[in-house]
Every structure is written in structure tokens, then in C-alpha cells.
Amino acid sequence: MFEPSTLKDIAKALGLSTSTVSRALRDTHEISAETKKIVLEYAEKINYRPNPIALSLKERRSKSIGVLVSEVANHYFSQAINGIESIAYDRGYHVIITQTHESYEREKINIQHLASRSVDGLLVSLSAETSDTTHLKNLHQRGLPIVFFDRVAADIDTHKIVANNEKGAFEATEFLINKGYKRIAHLTSTSHLSISIERLLGYKKALQQHHLPVCEDYIKHCAHGGMFLDEVESAINSLMNLPEKPDAIFVAGDRLSVGCLMVLKKLNIKVPDDIGIAGFSNSDVLDLLNPPLTAVHQPAYEIGQIATEMLINLIESKYPVYEFENKVLDTSLSIRS
Amino acid sequence: MFEPSTLKDIAKALGLSTSTVSRALRDTHEISAETKKIVLEYAEKINYRPNPIALSLKERRSKSIGVLVSEVANHYFSQAINGIESIAYDRGYHVIITQTHESYEREKINIQHLASRSVDGLLVSLSAETSDTTHLKNLHQRGLPIVFFDRVAADIDTHKIVANNEKGAFEATEFLINKGYKRIAHLTSTSHLSISIERLLGYKKALQQHHLPVCEDYIKHCAHGGMFLDEVESAINSLMNLPEKPDAIFVAGDRLSVGCLMVLKKLNIKVPDDIGIAGFSNSDVLDLLNPPLTAVHQPAYEIGQIATEMLINLIESKYPVYEFENKVLDTSLSIRS
DNA sequence: TTATTTTATGCAATCGTTGCCGAAACGTTA
DNA sequence: TAACGTTTCGGCAACGATTGCATAAAATAA
After folding, report:
1. pLDDT band at B305 (very low <50, low <70, confident <90, very high)
2. Span B22-37, mean pLDDT?
């Protein structure tokens, strides 16, 4: 069977004790240069690698961080993950990625598993279903470093790093207004998510600033953030069945934006003639889309990087940290019409 | 600090030994019903969970499987990962995802890390740069179960599960031929990858069967599978600078197909008037693309599922397995013109 | 009452590694 | 020469959970 070599193997082969071998490899001053040389050479020869599991057990840390996102098949998250990995890799940490598929149950299970696997910290973006964050609060109170990104928990005091959702939503809505649309609907994820709240706020502010009414019937939530096309379709259908149909939609999410375009195509509603669309999306193929999509782009890679920097700093901090940052990065609007 | 409860805590609290507690929790016959009840209730109360790290160290298995893919930001792989997770979850395994970004070095490092982290098995799709598979061969020979999917290693004898790349490529090429294109180029990944070899074969067979010449100048390889737009652009440029320009391209990869469309748009080459395109892609937005893309779709989710089934069966097999399967799943061609 | 079985529990080793203590063996100093 | 400090190394314990073996008490049989 598959048996990696251990300290004991080296010790036995060289007639030393395991502690001596361990110290020789860690280059302690109390081992003679000669012994060190012998040990190092033999270790090299048999390609010895310390067992990280044994180390985790002993040191109570694993040099790994857990990541919780809703879906890797989402451009925002896959870009964020690349940012996370770039930093983690540099600083000697490994990354364990888990997906919630927007399910609260999956989120609890994954968090529980990551915690018991001795990850040294967590990077979390909440699932669409999550409104209760007790499972994270417990871990955080017991001292596990957590950094939120994208979908943050309002009631947990720690580092948070997000895009300027309100401003991005404002700009996208204003773009539609400037294009001459008057009845702008808003398609978004569950109402309790931080990103939903902020984007809704930006949407409303833009309407108000341009003296357009805010109509609650125009605001549609999708319980799974557009993961299923059904929910997008029924949301759009209910918008289109209103006595006064909207003439544009501001869409607040990556999956939702794509889903929205697909549904409109299916319903044979022309963009931008029948209806105007603008939305959040980090897709790499936006330039190839037909109908075109004016999109709010988030600095996902950078958000992942900064979140990871912050998390590793928390993990490696010698003293407990009580001052937390709330970092907001600007979005950019790519106009396609 | 963050301190989960242990067997020792329970033992101390109840005035028992750790072994009694352990046996009570595992419901051994040699513990009295009364003691069991007390222990179980207390364990429940303090929310005891066995430390998986300690278990890994002792049992030499971790109930987790490692996955190696080139990029999660690739529709094929993100779908495959969802398939992998669906099965792994059902059978009580956890999934650790790592990305190579098509780099051989990253592949070696990730594999090494997964192995030393005591994953019980590996699901591997090779990076574009990988031509030497010694790092995997060593692990496999030492008994670590490995199942390949998508990009498989010819010289390692184990389960392999792939799409019918040759047939898919044949159909896509034939589609272009039937559309009336005569000079069909082929844009693909590195030449040593199994998928490249098989797709090239299908491409050539289609040409031959329709009495079209196979021109080596028309076959372009991208060293990083289209991960960088530069390589796609230079490949297309060199195709377009040929004395006899191709009038169509069959593209053999997800990233490559998208990249190809982007470059053509940038160069203002019209599809399908100036040039015809067909390619492999599992993107979910193909119906929204302009220019449209006729695409070979692979059953990625199913491939992930089957590979995981096979791997877990290998892991849990009581006896060494010497008979390996080579499973091939059919692709489907979605015509968009 | 004594011998034997059954039942319930504890001890100690194990997995691989490192921290701590102590023990030689040597050199230095009073 | 005795006392002390250094250098270099080995042994033990610990991290958390499991398990074979030992052992104790209780129950049963002779």
C-alpha cells in the first residue's frame, strides 16, 4: 500500500532517535553539523515530506483556509477564487473550496466540516437562503478567524470586503433612465442578503433622484438567486403581466442577468427595443452576447485577494484583533447598447 | 480560543475513561445500556464531533477525495465538479478542489499536497502542459486510487472516463463540411493531451471521408488551452495570413471556442459569412452568443458522477483491483447557424 | 464456598511530529 | 580535582481517537 516515509523510518535507518531527526531537519542549533548533514541527505534521498495531518493534530493548525461560495460555476466567484488562491499560495496556505448551491443546509454542513477539519480561517459569502448566521457566529466567538466577502453578515463583527453595490446599482439604473426608460423594474436575489439590500438601495436612489416613482410591484426576488431558470421566468412573467408593464429591468446578479436574457429570448421579447436591460455580471463573454448587456463589473479577483490578505493577517496575528475593516471597492459599468 | 470538545472532556465530565466513552459512542456491545445513554446524552449536549484529523492520522484515510482540474472558471469543469460533489456527498466523502491553471508545476505541487493530506483517492484531468505523468504514476503504483476524466494519461492503467471526443469532433467537422465550407482549420490545445489527439483524429476522419485534403498548416495548437487570449489571437492571425485562408475553424475546447469568437470579433471577421465556426463548449449562454456557435456538448455532470462512483468503489474495494474500465460517453451537437 | 463465566471498564499502544527534560561527554575554571 | 557550563543527543509525553488486552466486579455454576 501507499506508505510515505516518516521520521521513524529515517531514525531507524540512521540509528538515531526521532527527536534528533526532527531537530536536524528543522535546523535546530542543538544538533551537530555533521548529524544534520547525514539526516538531510538521507531525507532528501528517500524524498521525505512531513505528514501534514500529524502536524495539524499537534499544532492545531493546518495552514489551510476554507472558502464558502454559492457556486463555482459563477464568473464572479470563480474570479474571486483565483484571487484567493493567488494570495494563499504565496503565503503558504492551501485553499479548500466548498459550494452551498444557495442552500442554507449545505452552508451549515460545509461550515461545520471545514471547522472540524481544522482550517485556520474562513472566507465566506453567504448563500441566498441564509438569514440566520448562528452557525458562523458560534465559530467566530470561539475564535475562528472569518472574513466575509460579497454577501456579508450584518450581525457578525469581523473584516468585510465588498464591491460598492449601492453605487454600481445606482449607475446601472441611471444608465437605463438616461436611455429614456421610465418604468424600470428590479430583479434581484433574496431580500435579506447584504448585496440585495445595497443594490435595491442604489436602484431606489437613482429613481428618486430622477423623480421617477418607486413601485413595489416592480421589485422581484428570486429565492435561489437565479440558479433555476424557472424562478427567473416566473418573475419576468409576473412583471410582464402587470397592468403597466415595465420598459426596462435592472438585474442584480450574475446568474440572474444571464437567466433574464435567456428568458426574454425565449419569450421573444426584444432587447433593447421591447425592454432595456442592465445588470451585474462578471462574465467573460459579455461582448459576445446578443442581446447586448450593459453590465456592472465587480473587481472580483481583487476582492478575493484582499479578503485573503486580511484573513491570513487575522490568523497570524499574535494578539486578538478587535478592530475590523469594512472595505468597499468600486465597480465599473461597461456600456453595451 | 477555538477549542472543540474531545473524548477526554466527556470522560472527565462523566468520570469515565476515554475508551469507555469512545465505545459508548460507537455503540459497542460491551458497554452497559445505562452508560451508553449517559454518554450519548452528554455528547449531544456539548455537540461533540470526533476530530477528523485525529481520525485521519489513526485510520490513514480521510473520507475525502482530491480533484485536479485546470480551471473552475470553465463550464465543462464546473459542471463536472457539480457531478463529482453530488456523488461524493451521498457516499460520505468530502471534495477538495485544486486548479492547475494549465501549469505542469502547479499540477505536481497540487498532487503532492493532496497525497500528503491523505486524500483517499484522486480525480484527475491533466493540465495542458503535462506530458510527463511520473508524479501520478508513482502515487498510483504505491496504491493510491486514481480515476482520470477528460484529459487522461495513456500510460497509467486505471479507470478512465471521457466523452466520445473523436465522434464529437467528427460531427462538428462534418457539420461545417455540410454547410459548404471547404478549407476547415483546426484550433486545439497542446498536442500531447488525450483530448487533443482524439479530437484531431475525428477532424481528420471527417475531412478524409468527405474527400477534403488534410493540411498541416491548418492545425494550430495553443500551449495553454486558450487560457490567454494572446495565444488564440496569434494562432488565428497565422491562419489568416496563410496564402490560402481557411474558410472555417473547428475549435477543440471550451476556453478556445470563446476565445476564438472574441478574437474574430476583434479582428472584425464576420461569422458565419467570412468564416464558419464550430467547437466544443459546455457554456450555458451559447444560445445568447453572437455570432452563434454550433457546439459539441459533453455530458460533464454525468462524467463527474461516473468518475466519482468509480473512484469511491476503488477506494472501498477490499481487494486490489486490476481490471480497469475505459468508459466513453456520447457528446451531442447543438446546431446554431 | 470456590471456580468459572459474563459484563463493564481501564490501560496502553498507535498514527507522525515536536516540546521538554535529562543524560552523557567534553571542556573550562577555581 | 571538584564543580560547573556546553554541546549533543535520547526518552517521554502530548495532540485526539480507536482498540487489543488486562482486570475488576458481578453473576452464575459446581
Report:
1. very high
2. 87
Say which residues have a Cβ less than 8 Å from residue A310's Cβ, sequence separation at least 6: A147, A159, A161, A325, A327
Q: At residue B2, does pLDDT exceed 80?
A: no
Task: Map out the domains of chain B as residue ranges.
Answer: 7-50, 63-163+300-329, 165-297
Q: Hey, what CATH topology would domain A165-297 get?
A: Rossmann fold (3.40.50)
* Cell digits of residue B329: 460517453
Among the partner-chain residues A143, A261, A284, the one whose CB lies closest to the CB of B258 is A284
Of B52, B112, B115, the CB nearest to A116: B52
CATH code of A63-163+300-329, in short, is 3.40.50.2300
Extract the C-alpha cell encoding A84. 484567493
Measure the CA–CA gap between B54 and B62, rounded to whole angstroms.
10
Q: In Å, what is the separation between the CA of B20 and the C1' of D23?
A: 14
Q: Do domains B7-50 and B165-297 have the same CATH topology?
A: no
- Nucleotide nearest B56, CA–C1', reads C15
Which strand D nucleotides have any atom less than 7 A from protein CB atoms?
7-20
Task: Say how far apart CA B12 and CA B21 lie, in whole Å.
Answer: 10
Condensed to tens digits (0 to 9), the pLDDT of residues A233-277 reads: 999 999 999 999 999 999 999 999 999 999 999 999 998 899 999
- Averaged pLDDT of chain A: 93
Quick check: A1 pLDDT over 70? no
Mean pLDDT of B72-101: 93
Q: What is the pLDDT of residue B30?
A: 81
**Fold classification of A7-50 (topology level):** 434 Repressor (Amino-terminal Domain) (1.10.260)
Distance of C1' in D27 from CA in B54, Å: 38
A84-88 long-range Cβ contacts below 8 angstroms, 24+ apart: A84/A123, A84/A304, A84/A305, A84/A307, A84/A308, A85/A304, A85/B99, A86/A301, A86/A304, A86/A305, A87/A304, A87/A305, A87/A308, A87/A309, A87/A312, A88/A308, A88/A312
